[in-house]
Structures are given as structure tokens and as C-alpha cells.
Amino acid sequence: MKLAARLVTLMAMTLAALNSQASSLEKLLMPGELSGAHAQFEDDCGDCHDRTDRTRQRGLCLGCHDHGDIAADISRGEGFHGRAARKAQCNACHSEHKGRQADIVHFDAEGFDHRKADFLLTGAHAAAACTGCHEEGSKFREAPKQCQECHRDDDVHRGKLGVDCGQCHETTGFKPVRFDHGKTRFPLTNAHGQVACAACHRDPGFKGAPMLCVDCHAADDVHRRSRGPDCAACHGTVDWRQSRFDHARSTGYALEGRHSTLACDACHRGGDLKAPLPKDCAGCHAAADAHSARFGTACADCHGQQEWVVQSFDHEKRARFALRGAHHELGCHSCHTGVLKQPELPKDCHGCHAADDAHAGSMGRECQSCHKESGWRDDVRFDHDFARFPLVGLHVSVPCEECHATRAYRDAPVECIACHRNKDVHEGRLGESCASCHNANGWHFWQFDHGRQSEFALTGRHARLGCRDCHRETTAGRGDGKPPRDCWSCHYRDDIHDSRFGRDCERCHGTDSFRRALAN
């Protein structure tokens, strides 16, 4: 027995020595120092590695990190590790042996996909900063998950409706609200559906809200409670004007046209709906009678109940004067300035528009021969071709007042120089018959045959001269208005012979040059 005990002791000592040697050997083969968080395990590789079974490494990691709830998250399929890394090896993300300062977490807060966490970022949450929910120094998993934990200060109900804000509100914002009021004792219909909650619910817990119409609408009761508290007997929830009250059957006066859209107090101004009211137009609308009773009190002869604009009066049939063009837009009193039919109004243009006649009667009384009823300037039909001065060329686009200084029109000149004297570049040297050279298409389109029209053909050097080289004086300063035709009268300063050969220069010289004499 003693021998057996000694053998066991020897074997244990041998194994311990072998393990110590193996541990030392493993440490020598270690690829690098552990991070600061794992530095305490650096002396015993077996804490994280099983040399006989590498698949146990994940279990060894979770054995240590069970206190951090990571193993529990993986087991329940919750949190980041339970959702995104449930079957992954730990060292696939958290690599070691890279030194004391190495970051083995490798967490990128900015690029983190929150869909892998327990709290999906939707609506306004997607735009929120990380620090809005994750406090500095705390673990990301410790962020609040209940609405009330973050939005306690935004809770207008002051906690009286519980902490599950998501029952009524969306993450896009506190409005719109998803609460179904139809499941309460007071379904919100028509206009009530647009009212803010606080307008009826003064208590943040929504208790004690009014149920009767008059509880909220006493100030809107134009009847001053004379019709009782049951507003719903006549009114619906669309608006006060839509009433179920049968006005025609109850009062003998049907509300038609604009009358059907009026509020009750528009006619029943005293609030007493039983007080008698007139049933004829003038009885209510005397103050609105633009005719001041000059057209009588039978308003319905011309007007309907939709609006005051005349709807039924046939002016052509009843007054023998059709209202067309600009006449159609006129108010009755533009023509009927006195009592209706007194006096009888004229039916010709000049009878009403003599004061508007810009021609002062010079064009006669038949205004319609040129003008239309739509307006004095609309499509004037005057044909200038039948006047003393037909409009051709550029004259066609010239405004009437450029030539017609007055609206008499017949006093306009017909001579070119009368209108264009200030544009005469010849300054009167060529006379006043502009049409001899120019036409109405423009001053630059001119034709003048000097040989035929002036009996002095321009040849040689003369053909290159400008008009003013010969026509130096205005027609007003000459007797016949024409320059001389003999050579010497123009070229006496160029006569090197001093008139010894006479004044017939053309006997020896041509029009090309004085320097060469003509051969005999």
C-alpha cells in the first residue's frame, strides 16, 4: 500500500511538471499579448483554449461572460448577440493576442445596424442621435425601451393613461393619434373629428368629458336656449348651418338659392325664431336695393334668389335694345340714371356717347361703321385705302396718333415732308418731293435716275460723288432749286488756265480727270 501511494504521488508530480512545462511552452508560442481586459488569463491558456477540443472555445467564452447576460441573450434569441451572433464563434468578431491596448470589441456606433438590436429605429427615432438614448458610460443594452422612460416630459396626460404610448401614438411623431374614438360612448363624426383632444378633454386623464351638445356649444347657441338644450334635434355634426329643420313646412317660406346657405340669425336677428318676418324681397332687402326703389319692389322680376346679378330680365325683348359687347357688362344705372323708363333712352350710339366722341362729330354719327360694341378700340373697321392717303409700306404699322395730331383725322397732311421734315438728311437741298427718290418701305430703299430725272448724267468721277458735293445750298436759297450744269461753275477753282481757254472745259477734258486732255 505504501508503494502504491508513492507511485500515485510520483505520477501527480510528473503530470504537474509536464503541465507546467506545456504551459511554459504554450506561452512561448503565444502570438501576442492579450488585451488589457483579459491580461489576467495570460498565464493559463487553458482558461480560454481546450487543446483537445477547439469547438469548446465558444462555450469557454460564454462561461466567463454569463454574468454579463450575453449567454442569456443568446439562449433567448434577444439583444444583439441573440439576434445577429447566435451561432457565430466569438473569435469571429473578437480577436485576441494583439496587445494590451487592442480594441477587441470592434464596435462602430455610427455604422451599427439597429435592426440587429431589440429596438428597431423607425420614424423620428431613425434621425435621433445615439446619445439621445444611450447615456455616456453606460452599456448600450441598458438604454430604455419603454416610451415613457424617454418621453416622460412630453406626456401631456401626466401618466394618467399609463406608460404604453404606442397604443395611440406612432414613432413618426405624437400626431396623428391612432386612438379609435368610435369605440367610446362618443364617436367623433364630421367636424368633431377635426377638433383637438384638449378642446373637450380638459382633464389629462380624459375623464369627465362633456357628452351633451350644450355642454360645449352654449356660447354658439344663437337661439339663446329658446329652442332647448337638444341641438341635435335640428343640427348635425357637419356644421351649424346644415339643419334638419323643414323651413318650408314649418314657416311657409322655402329657403332656396342663397337663402338656403344663410345662418338662422341672418334673418332671425333677435334670436326669437317665432317672431314674424316679411316674405317679400323688399321687406328684407330694401337697404340693399341698389336702385333705391326707382325700379319698384318686384325684385323677382329681374333677380333670382342665388345672387343680385340680373338673371331673368330679357333686355332685347322688353326694352328693344340688345345688350351686347361692353353693354352686357354695364350695371343698370350706367344708362338708367333716373326712374325706370323715365325718360326714354336713345338707341343710337351717338345719343349716349356724344361726350365720348373723340372726333368731335367730324366723322358723323354712325359710330358703328368703324367701331364695335365690345370697345372703342377693339378691331376698328376703318379702311384707310379709301382715304386720301392709303397706308402702304411702313405706314401700315404706324400708330394713328403719329400722323393724326387730333381726332378730327381729316386735318392730317398727305405730303411726305410735312411729317418727315426733321428726318430730311438733305436739309432741303433736294426739294420737298421725297417720293421722287424714296418709297414707303424705308428711307434706304431709294431709286433716282440722275440722267433721266435731272438731265445731267453722272459719269466718270461724278458717279462717285455724294449728293452734297454738288447740292450745297437748300432749295430755299436758290431760284430754280437746281445746281449749275456747266463745268466751270463748279470747277473754276480747278481751272489752271485762268479762263484763257474759255469756260467750255468739256472741249478738252472728260469727266474722268482734268489731268488728261481729250485727243482730237
Write up what this structure looks like.
21% of the residues lie in helices and 3% in strands. It contains 17 helices and 4 strands. The strands form 2 sheets. A two-stranded antiparallel ribbon has the order 1-2. It has a two-stranded antiparallel sheet with strand order 3-4. A hairpin with a 2-residue loop joins strand 3 and strand 4. The longest helix has 28 residues, at 2-29. The chain is flat, with a radius of gyration of 56 Å. The chain starts with a helix and ends in a 29-residue tail after the last helix.
Outline, from the CA principal axes? flat
Q: Catalogue the unreliable spans.
A: none
Classification by helices and strands: mainly alpha
Strand line-up of the largest beta sheet: 1-2
Q: DSSP strand (E) fraction?
A: under 5%
Tally of separate helices: 17
Give the helix proportion (percent range). Answer: 10-25%
